[in-house]
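Hi V.,

You were right to ask for the full record rather than a summary. Here it is.
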Amino acid sequence: MSGVKKVKGNSYNDGSNEFRVTLWIKAVERWPQHPLFGFGVGNYTYYSAQDWGLSETSTTTHGTVTDFLVDFGIIGLGLFLYIVIDIISGLIVSKQYVLLAMLPGIIICSVIVGAERTVALWLYLIVFYVVGHFCKKNSGISLYDVFRENPAT
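Predicted structure:
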């Protein structure tokens, strides 16, 4: 737990960072109550309100990993991680290094922000999944070939 205090102490005096870490800690402390399947989508806010002594709140855990953990449990988090790993392996096998280079930034931002409820994260993951698997199955075709205006026939 001392590592958490260090992170909280080095948050550049930004209260939102400290609050986010506190939300993550509370979520991980609550998670064992429903470890396999979680609390269900959006239901964790009820327990979060109890933790803060409020009658209600709309606060999530503000982190994709922690949100998946409390909403869907370890099974849901595992499935999400499987999808991300499958996308990464598809991009590596198909040698789509430009897309692969973009993926860590998207994933890191989603871990910090809690982007699992945003369209952007899912849109990126779907596009990367489709492109990676398309290029893996059609190894002789590059993204340039797919998107150029006058493809060679």
